[in-house]
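protien #1 (seq + structre)
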Amino acid sequence: MIPSPLPGSEPGLNRPRLLVVDDQPANLQALYRTFAADHQVYMATTGTQALELARERQPDLILLDLDLPDLDGFEVCARLRADPRLRDTPVIVVTAHSDEAAETRALSTGAVDFIAKPIHPAVVRARVHTHLMLKHQGDLLRRMAFLDPLTGLHNRRALDERLAADLRQAARQSQSLAVLMIDIDRFKRYNDHYGHLAGDDALRRVAATLQAGMLRPMDLVTRYGGEEFVGLLPDTDPAGAMAVAERLRDAVAALGLPHPLSEVKPCLTISLGVACQAANAPSDAARLLARAEQALLQAKAAGRDGLVLAADDA
């Protein structure tokens, strides 16, 4: 029995991506015919080519032969597991080796399954379907671990990982990186006056407004905790970061959420601190966040509903 297609594998939608690695054209063609109708199939004939394609195409699953002309399948599997971008990609070994030692070594190296040749298309399809479903479920759980359940934004854990990655990217590309530290003004008074259910709704609306204000795909806004948010703006200098901060401040004020207990304005407002990691400067995530937080404290001390650029960037 052929399993039903995975969600998203129907023609015309984003189909699961498979990377098939084998040095024999006949084997490649057999696997291509098995999966081409409802999967995107990429093919490689060497271990080096397989690793390059995996990094470029980010497949959902890899079918890997052990006997390759350069790197063997064990080495390819080990290198995949050592790459943070690929370590969660399931690898099914498809090989002429049917001995227990090869299977044990393949599984201990990181493969999730072992299929001996000659292949039976229905069996291979069933196993691929099973491991794609398991990967889909694992990806969903990983995404949920990085999301704030109230606002739907990325959470503090996601911020830590993304900030570290953005700093590495900035160093490689000699680019600047800006951080916005954002706080809702007098939010405790808002909760005390309207209640926590209304406060939660306000947090969701502010979060959606901040997210909408991040106009580039590379920009990110996260919930930092309580009524605080952090924005990450790669390849952004101080002037550009201040322009984004001003746009976000205006957008939240434009929501017009009544806040009669705030001395700032009769509606909900935000304060923002802005700090930038200059191009070619030493990377320091903790210091960058601390500078943005200090600038935020200055914005709040100056009367709130404003923005301050960290002194080092002014």
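ok now protien #2
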Amino acid sequence: MLTLRRVSKFAPALVLIALAVPSSAFGQATRTWVSGVGDDANPCSRTAPCKTFAGAISKTANGGEINCLDPGGFGGVTIGKSLTIKCHYTEGGVLVSGTNAIVINATATDKVTLKGLDINGIGIGAQTSLSGVKVLSAKHVNIFDNEIYRFQSGVTIAPTSAATTVVLRGNHIHDNGLGVVTAPGSNAITFVSTVLRWNEIQDNSCGVSTGAFGTNASTPTTTDCGTASSASGINKLATSNLHHNGINLNANSGVFIRGANATAELAWNEVTNNSLFGVHRVDSGNFRTITNTNTITGNGATDAPNLSTALTKRAAKRHRG
């Protein structure tokens, strides 16, 4: 049996061994850092940051956070766990060409937050990059205070394996084929739901689309705004709640709803100067309005709501803010 005296003889050597073993051997960090002058061979600590989000994600624990230490372009990434990427106080650039920028393909219990990113698909006129943010699977996703532009679809919410809720707040989504599209990615899910608050969604082909039959986001034509028809074989509940958004100057429809299982609820929005329709519903899509709260004007045309909720004091308190 080792005595205390014998153990003490080994203590200095044990300390040196511990220092020599990389931190990854003891587990991933709960907070990691990226820098414009970083290196993905680094441990992604504040004093030795990584270069890219893809390099940092493997060194970040489930439920952890990646922060930007200084301005930089940090590349696209696929997120497969609960994670926050937050670059709210410096330039967090994600610039891609011909592909998706950020793909969220996590588990049915994971929560993901993206905040303060500049997500650029490069294309001018004919966009070649796919989606700025593409949600395939997660329990809940927050997309806050980002600029997303020059993609075929700014934000594609099309979950394939889990009922998913997404909240977009304070984003500027512009110069895309589609601004935001919400639709089931398969019949394996029960529903998909998106809440949009205080976003500026402008100068896209279509602003906000909600479809029960899935997506056709690569071809946002004047008839589909990125939504598939019933021929897709998919038909699930899809809802979008739009409160306090500016939806303006889109070339097709500001708000587009397709299918009887698709509903867009609008309250306190400005839906103005969209070339074809302010709000357009097809295939029995549902347009619910909170009475006398929206400004819908200056559009080529607009469809009347088929559902409405009276503006009670309780409704006003719930929807404001």
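The chain is about 10% helix and 40% strand.
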